[in-house]
């Protein structure tokens, strides 16, 4: 991916105009020297005649007034055109960066969950927070580099007019300098690539530090080991690579800085002995070369930074390639009515790069108006089955039916809309997104009371007043959001694990039966064997396969405990004494 090509593709007109302005500004910049020389050397045939007598302009005596005016005009023009060029190209750069991020957001949102799980959070966050700003930084340098290049070309043109021998000599020196400068730059770039790669691991360790702070605080030995062999190992690796890369690149760029002086020295000490050159020409050449020192320094100093940007550009490009688009047809069929979900020989295997764990083949059925418990030992494949059921994972074999409809690329998107799931690694948003406003506050307040959260959280202007809650309370708030969604299939992955016994009972004896009574298909991944009787079917998993399916004689908890967790949309239950049934 070429940064300049990307810019040109995004905003060709503006990029062209800014290059034009940058180029013109560079030409004007390179015209300043002949202009000054022509004032200092009146009578030189190469330059126009200039006025000798001072002219009064606004009580100031000005020599060579016409030249002075041209000089000021050129300076002002440089100021305006350069600024415009920089501002325009920087704006394009900011747009490109923002579009990069947006493309990443879109790609993340439309990638299969399995691909995101295997890429890992650390890499995605680093791309968004480190690589994209580096790309912008590189883009911001482009106008300066461009202007300096044009100045350099203009100055070479001036040398050609002055003395063609000098021109060829300087050109040869620049070619040699540029080539000899490239070798260390390439080596330095390798170190930057290495540092960038190590940065992903460092990011992962930083996550470990922040998320694992509680464990680390309780164990000094563990903390020390984590610092020595994980966090600081990555930190040192990044530091080492960046230092070495910078040392090489800095040395090369200083060498580049002095390039103009090497050329000047070669001309005044060596060249003059081999070719005829007048003193006036020599002064002109030296002035031109001194003048060009700045632009050369800009080009050479900014190139290292550009190479850092290029590394980031490549990382983002690789990431784009690694995140596959999910196989979902752009036009989705409307969902048909369904009363059950059926698995027919459904199988799923984690990539060989992951655990290689395999689930299935599974033949299962989940009915609306029934509660299914999925039980089994740790690692038996319960959550994997859950993700197959909620259509987050696509089966690698077999077919998932919603009613009589086999899920395909053309329908998976619409059938997903019928599902609400709370996984153990759920994310709680501080607002209810995509829900109609009408009656929302009343409904949320009802559920807040029912879930005993009304003294902790308020719902105002579409947001929850706080998410600073206990684990169990946060999970209740996630349940509230799920209830508001009012879907047809509910999946709870160990939802009740961190609820107190009272609320656990509420969940199993009231919330689940309430959902069943409302005709939802309810699937619960659980270890709470005390409540197994409540289920219509219990699927026992072992090592990715169904060990057995039980259908306990259930107590109809809905009838036993009323409609405590009913949807306020269904009935007028606002006056019901909450938890009275307990
Ligand atoms: N993202 C993943 N990448 C690779 N392998 C995975 C991934 N997630 C789970 N696995 C593998 O699949 C197996 C089953 O995991 P799963 O989460 O389905 O088990 P579970 O029954 O829900 O366990 P638990 O009761 O501990 O939550 C695990 O042993 C693990 O080897």
TrEMBL record:
Compartment(s): Cell membrane
Stretches that traverse the bilayer: 15-37, 57-80, 141-160, 166-187, 258-276, 282-303
Domain ABC transmembrane type-1 as annotated: residue spans: 15-306
GO biological process, alphabetically ordered: peptide transport
UniProt GO MF annotations: ABC-type transporter activity; ATP binding; ATP hydrolysis activity; ATPase-coupled lipid transmembrane transporter activity; peptide transmembrane transporter activity
InterPro entries: AAA+_ATPase, ABC1_TM_dom, ABC1_TM_sf, ABC_transporter-like_ATP-bd, Cyc_pep_transpt_SyrD/YojI, P-loop_NTPase, Type_1_exporter
Nucleotide-binding keyword on record: yes
UniProt keywords, alphabetically: ATP-binding, Membrane, Nucleotide-binding, Transmembrane, Transmembrane helix
Record carries keyword Transmembrane: yes
Its membrane topology: Multi-pass membrane protein
Pfam family, one: ABC_tran
Domain spans labelled ABC transporter: 341-568
Top-level division of the source organism's lineage: Bacteria
GO cellular component: plasma membrane
Signal peptide: none
Entries under PANTHER family matching the protein: ATP-BINDING CASSETTE SUB-FAMILY B, ATP-BINDING CASSETTE SUB-FAMILY B MEMBER 6
Name the record gives this protein: Cyclic peptide export ABC transporter
């Amino acid at each position: 991916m070429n940064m300049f090509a990307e810019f040109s593709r995004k905003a060709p007109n503006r990029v062209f105009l800014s290059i034009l302005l940058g180029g013109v500004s560079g030409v004007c910049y390179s015209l300043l020297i002949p202009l000054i020389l022509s004032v200092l050397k009146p009578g030189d045939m190469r330059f126009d005649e200039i006025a000798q007598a001072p002219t009064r302009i606004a009580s100031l005596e000005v020599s060579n007034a016409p030249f002075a005016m041209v000089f000021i005009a050129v300076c002002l023009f440089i100021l305006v055109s350069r600024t415009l060029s920089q501002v325009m190209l920087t704006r394009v750069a900011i747009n490109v960066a923002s579009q990069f991020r947006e493309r990443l957001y879109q790609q993340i949102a439309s990638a299969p969950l399995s691909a995101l799980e295997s890429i890992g959070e650390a890499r995605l966050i680093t791309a968004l927070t480190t690589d994209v700003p580096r790309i912008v930084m590189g883009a911001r340098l482009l106008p300066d580099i461009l202007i300096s290049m044009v100045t350099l070309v203009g100055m070479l043109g001036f040398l050609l007019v002055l003395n063609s021998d000098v021109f060829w000599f300087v050109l040869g020196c620049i070619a040699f300098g540029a080539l000899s400068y490239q070798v260390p730059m390439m080596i330095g770039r390798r170190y930057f690539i290495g540092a960038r790669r190590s940065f992903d691991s460092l990011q992962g360790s930083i996550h470990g530090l922040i998320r694992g702070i509680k464990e680390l605080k309780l164990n000094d030995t563990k903390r020390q080991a984590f610092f020595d062999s994980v966090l600081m190992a990555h930190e040192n690796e990044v530091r080492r690579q960046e230092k070495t890369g910078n040392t090489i690149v800095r040395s090369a760029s200083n060498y580049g800085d002095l390039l103009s002086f090497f050329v000047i020295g070669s001309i005044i000490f060596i060249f003059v002995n081999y070719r005829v050159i007048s003193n006036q020409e020599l002064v002109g050449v030296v002035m031109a070369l001194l003048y060009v020192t700045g632009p050369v320094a800009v080009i050479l100093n900014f190139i290292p930074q550009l190479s850092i940007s290029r590394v980031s550009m490549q990382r983002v490009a690789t990431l784009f390639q690694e995140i596959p688009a999910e196989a979902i047809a752009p036009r989705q069929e409307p969902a048909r009515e369904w009363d059950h979900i059926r698995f027919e020989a459904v199988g799923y295997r984690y990539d060989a790069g992951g655990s290689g764990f395999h689930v299935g083949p599974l033949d299962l059925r989940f009915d609306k108006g029934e509660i299914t418990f999925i039980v089994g030992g740790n690692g038996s494949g319960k959550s994997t089955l859950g993700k197959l059921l909620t259509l987050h994972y696509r089966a690698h074999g077999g077919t998932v039916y919603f009613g009589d409809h086999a899920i395909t690329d053309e329908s998976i998107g619409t059938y997903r809309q019928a599902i609400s799931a709370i996984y153990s690694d759920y994310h709680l948003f501080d607002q209810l997104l995509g829900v109609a406003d009408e009656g929302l506050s009343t409904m949320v307040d009802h559920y807040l009371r029912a879930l005993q959260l009304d003294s902790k959280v308020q719902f105002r202007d579409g947001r929850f007043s706080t998410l600073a809650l206990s684990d169990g309370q946060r999970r209740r708030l996630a349940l509230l959001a799920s209830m508001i969604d009012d879907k047809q299939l509910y999946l709870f992955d160990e939802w009740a694990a961190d609820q107190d016994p009272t609320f656990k009972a509420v969940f199993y004896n009231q919330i689940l039966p309430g959902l069943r009574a409302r005709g939802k298909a309810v699937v619960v991944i659980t270890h709470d064997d005390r409540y197994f009787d409540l289920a219509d079917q219990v699927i026992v998993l072992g090592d990715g396969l169904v060990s057995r399916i039980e259908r306990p004689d259930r107590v109809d908890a809905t009838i036993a405990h009323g409609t405590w967790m009913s949807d306020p949309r269904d009935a007028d239950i606002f006056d019901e004494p909450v938890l009275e049934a307990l």
